[in-house]
Specification:
CATH architecture: Alpha-Beta Barrel
Number of strands: 10
Distance between the termini: 32 Å
Number of domains: 1
Helix content: 25-40%
Number of helices: 11
Largest sheet: 8 strands, parallel
Radius of gyration: 21 Å
Order of helices and strands: HEHEHHEEEHEHEHEHHEHEH
Length: 365
């Protein structure tokens, strides 16, 4: 390579915009809930039933060092009639969030938060044909395909096991117009089972995980761009619901089986079969939801061990949850809702222990 060629190459690389490339494979983020609220109120009223995250909210997370946002939203609000145009106001709200994140060099996951249904009818039913899911994702990808700050398309939040054909139609819709962006495919399994006594040290974790997954073999789905990222959600309470109805001591004292009790390694144990499955298949993974209460330091110990395990294995994730409309409770990672400001205009918020713990593992910017 001549000196002139090296100079031209350097200029080209320096002029290239920052994109969500391979250096972004490991990110630690947060879900910004709000736009998917009140599913029983459709379309609902913005600001009363649901809301997009505010600029102040996004600024807060940017200042906190968080680079990745998973953004849940409702299919019915975006597309009130299947196979028809998007609602202009809702689509504009989504576009505004994308722009705010772009301006701050943050990454975004678009999360269709519909549990495999549209107006309570499952994808693949006569009311919601597979072609409608293909259409949704083709339209979304057409709008966002040239947006480098979209880290990935979250096809569907927690659709259950029987969604193989629907997922393939969603992938095909994206790839009809976008060959670059990651596609996140929900592949949950009953994580609480991984803490049971019958999961012995010599258990074949890959086979065990595959039995419970929607896609036990990555080859079940075809992506011509080979950019599928497999998504798992899990929580630390005994039933992995994330409700944390029982205190830590109550979890320990439960009478329905010592094998299901919480302990410091419970998060690692529940995630390990997924990680081993990913390694076996040379696949990429993402933890889309997890949380821990802040009212007992033992929950924080679980969270710390889990975050350390994700960092060790380079598994990106998004904590559940935050957002300017989110009312804080035991698992929330900021202290107050409402985003109040003091007389100087600064937000009067206090980080909770969950966010302070996350900061230990945030990748360097």
């Amino acid at each position: 390579m001549t000196g002139m060629h090296r100079l031209l190459l350097c200029l080209l690389l320096c002029a290239s915009p920052a994109i969500a490339g391979e250096d972004d494979d490991f990110l630690l983020g947060v879900n910004l809930a709000g736009a998917e609220f009140a599913p029983q109120e459709l379309p609902g009223i913005e600001g009363r039933n649901w809301a997009w995250p505010s600029q102040e909210c996004i600024d807060y997370w940017h200042k906190s060092g968080v680079r990745l946002i998973r953004l849940p939203f409702k299919w019915e609000r975006l597309q009130p009639t299947l196979m028809q145009d998007f609602d202009p106001a809702y689509a504009a709200g989504l576009a505004k969030v994308v722009a705010l994140l772009r301006e701050r060099d943050m990454r975004l996951i678009l999360d269709v938060h519909n549990y495999g249904k549209y107006r309570q009818k499952p994808i693949g039913s006569p009311e919601v044909p597979f072609a409608a899911f293909h259409d949704l994702w083709k339209r979304l990808a057409t709008i966002h395909k040239d947006e480098p700050h979209i880290w990935g398309y979250g096809l569907m939040n927690e659709p259950g096991k029987g969604w193989r054909e629907a997922a393939q139609h969603g992938i095909d819709g994206v790839r009809a117009v976008d060959q670059k962006t990651r596609i996140l495919v929900a592949n949950d399994y009953p994580c609480w089972g991984a803490t049971r006594a019958n999961l012995k040290p010599d258990t074949d974790l890959v086979a065990w995980a595959a039995q419970g997954m929607a896609f036990g073999d990555p080859a079940m789905l075809k992506d011509p761009a080979n950019r599928i990222v497999w998504e798992l959600h899990f929580y630390f309470d005994h039933d992995a619901s994330g409700t944390y109805r029982k205190t830590y001591d109550e979890e320990i004292a439960r009478k329905d089986g010592p094998e299901q009790r919480v302990r410091p390694e419970v998060g690692v144990h529940r995630m390990k079969p997924f990680v081993e499955w990913l390694k076996h298949h040379h696949a990429k993974g993402f933890i889309g939801e997890y949380s821990a209460p802040a009212d007992d330091p033992r929950w924080m110990e679980i969270l710390e061990k889990t975050l350390a395990y994700m960092a060790e294995n380079k598994i990106p994730s998004a904590y559940w949850a935050g957002g300017s409309s989110w009312s804080p409770y035991r698992t929330h990672c900021i202290e107050r809702s409402g985003w109040p400001k003091d007389v100087t205009g600064e937000l009067r918020l206090r980080d909770r222990p969950q966010l302070e713990m996350m900061r230990k593992f945030l990748p360097a910017r």
